[in-house]
Amino acid sequence: MIIRENVLLAPLTTFGIEARAAWHISLESPDDVRVWATETSCESHFADLPAMPLGDGSNVLFARDFDGIILGVDLRGREIVSENETSSILRICAGENWHNTVEFCINNGLFGIENLALIPGKVGAAPIQNIGAYGVEIEKFISSVEYFDTIDKRFITLRREDCLFGYRNSIFKNVLKSRHIITAVTLALSKIPRPAADYADLQRELESREISNPSPHDIFEAVIAVRKRKLPDPNVIGNAGSFFKNPIISTEKARKFIEKNPESPRYPQSDGSVKISAAWLIDHADWKGFRRGAAGVSPVQALVLVNYGGATGKEIVELARDIRLSVAEHFGIDIEPEVNILD
Ligand code: EPU
Q: Domain boundary residue among 53, 73, 93?
């Protein structure tokens, strides 16, 4: 456990916003996690401060300095805990890099998560927002999630069905918010390739490569190519991926919206509600490529807000608020942030 005081947050987040945290504590083992939660956190200079776990900071926006403790989740390791002829259960510690884990799986004949290549962040963050891309959500492959409950002061293993996964949602964002430190995730992966190539962008990429019967490796490569083309690279320009969630609206509201906007992309849900593309809404409210100071809307993906260098968290939050209001005025639809905003 390494404890540092007054730490710059820009290098710890993909938005690269200049803010500071009062403390940073790196947790490198389950024992570090337990000692932090049961002993260190009770020390007088920590006791009254908020604490939050942080992976690679790829889904967070600090709108001001954080007068609290950032818990850097650095637990490492991957192991196959059980297997049979057709599948393996892989346990991955929370501090492992997500994309490297996807690559590890592909290289070791463990299939299912290849569509989730190149998503920034660490493994521990994946279940929190049920990461999803190109037709696949991680919930389908999660077997269990291990976390330390900072109120009950014990390690708990939650089975997938108890994680209450939804679109960009899980129990870790609701009932367990602010009381969990995720330490490991176990995935049930197939040894038999079952490529999912239905997502339109992915299909187009595979067609352009003249691949009609893709292997998981083909999907992996194609997803990487699409992401590189369609999403700004956080290593080059600060961003946290999709800033907003795609809104889900009622059947009745969707009928009226589609009547007026027949060309808009839409994704009907099993309960009759309809998911609408937030990128399309923002684009058609004329925000794509907009820039105010160092804060802007990506010119390649309208759903991504970017820091051109030196933007403050407040500037990004104000831009997000203006976009949200404008989309509501244009279309009568509320778009909610997907990024965890600390203001
Ligand atoms: N579109 C526009 N304007 C744009 C961009 C897109 O009109 O500037 C339209 C496209 O024509 C397309 C539709 O919006 O029909 C959807 O676009 P896209 O396929 O890029 O997906 P998305 O719904 O905008 C979601 C995820 C992404 C994920 C992609 C691919 C959310 C909030 N975002 O974006 O996830 O990579 O699908 O599966 O669900 C993230 O969560 O950080 C993220 C990047």
A: 73
Please write the tens of the pLDDT for every residue from 263-276.
999 999 999 999 99
| Residue 118, in any domain of the structure | yes
User: Same domain, yes or no, for 43 and 118?
Assistant: no
Q: Are 62 and 313 in contact (CB under 8 A)?
A: yes
Residue 145 near residue 126 (C-beta atoms within 8 A): no
Q: Are residues 184 and 140 in contact, defined by beta-carbon separation less than 8 angstroms?
A: no
* Residue 10 shares a structural domain with residue 113: no
Going from the Cα of 265 to the center of ligand 1, the distance in angstroms, rounded, reads 10
Catalytic residue from among 242, 298, 315, 324: 242
Q: Which domain holds residue 270?
A: 238-342
Active-site residue, 34 included: no
In short, whether 201's Cβ falls inside 6 Å of ligand 1 is yes
| Same domain, yes or no: 246 and 305 | yes
Q: Which residue has the tokens 């708990």?
A: 156
Instruction: Specify the pTM.
Output: 0.95
Q: For residue range 114-134, what is the model confidence (pLDDT) as tens digits?
A: 999 999 999 999 999 999 999
d(C-alpha 243, C-alpha 314), whole Å: 14
